UniProtKB/TrEMBL annotation:
GO cellular component: bicellular tight junction; plasma membrane
Encoding gene per record: Cldn20
Any Pfam family the entry gives: PMP22_Claudin
Family to which the UniProt record says this protein belongs: Belongs to the claudin family.
Cited PANTHER family: CLAUDIN (PTHR12002)
Entry GO MF terms: structural molecule activity
Listed name of the protein: Claudin
Major subcellular site: other
Known function: Claudins function as major constituents of the tight junction complexes that regulate the permeability of epithelia.
Residue ranges crossing the lipid bilayer per the database entry: 75-97, 118-141, 161-182
Keywords: Cell junction, Cell membrane, Membrane, Signal, Tight junction, Transmembrane, Transmembrane helix
Its membrane topology: Multi-pass membrane protein
PROSITE patterns, per database record: CLAUDIN (PS01346)
Length: 219
């Protein structure tokens, strides 16, 4: 029962991690630059994401521009696009697999098949968390290095936005969920190897009868 509740808790973490992964991929505020100027009324916030750049004015106006050209983008943005999409696909695939393999569901066949299915889902979650964590760290490193560069003007410097923090949190959820699923399946398999099922050997009645018959013949 404890293992089933732990798997259900890991599944909830994976759901939050998967939705956060998709949100971080689509949000335009990976890096933010606020230009207040001389008057607070003319404040402008520039936001840059993986797929679009947006500008928000203090008057409430909001405009976005899609990034159509892929080759003109920096390498870290191209890599972030690819790895984040792979992370979303792996997290969705892991959710479908673990739904079948969890102990609290009636799908997936016998116990061994469900354990193998849960282990595969846990591997998907771990890979999704890694694919989410790597571009997020790389993107944050580029933001910090540009911010500390003294040769760049202040208008070209940015700070990490909400999408970066969402990516970090969702990666943590996916990694924790994957570790829980894999560890629960490994413990069950190790227990089966250490304590194999006992086989009861019953003596054959035919051999006893034959042995008794042969003894009577020699008397």
């Amino acid at each position: 029962m404890a293992s089933a509740s732990l798997q259900f808790f890991a599944f909830i973490l994976a759901l939050f991690g998967g939705f956060g992964d998709i949100a971080a991929t689509l949000l335009p505020n990976w890096k933010v630059n606020a230009d207040v100027g001389s008057n607070i009324i003319t404040a402008i916030t520039h936001m840059q994401g993986l797929w679009m750049d947006c500008t928000w004015y203090s008057t409430g106006m909001f405009s976005c521009t899609l990034k159509y050209s892929i080759l003109s983008l920096p390498v870290y943005i191209q890599a972030a696009r690819t790895t984040m999409v792979l992370s979303c696909m792996l997290s969705a695939f892991g959710i479908c697999i673990t739904t079948v393999g969890m102990k609290c569901t009636r799908l997936g066949g016998d116990t061994d098949s469900k354990n193998n299915t849960c282990f595969a889902g846990g591997i998907c979650f771990i890979l999704a968390g890694i694919f989410d964590l790597v571009p997020t760290c790389w993107y944050t490193r580029e933001i910090i290095s540009n911010f500390l560069d003294q040769t760049l003007p202040e208008s070209s410097k940015h700070e990490p936005g909400g999408a970066v923090y969402t990516g970090f949190i969702s990666a943590g959820f996916l990694l924790i969920a994957g570790v829980i699923f894999c560890s629960s399946c490994i413990k069950r398999q190790q227990g089966a190897w250490i304590y194999p099922p006992k086989q009861h050997h019953f003596p054959s009645t035919e051999q006893e009868s034959n042995a008794g018959y042969s003894l009577k013949d020699y008397v």
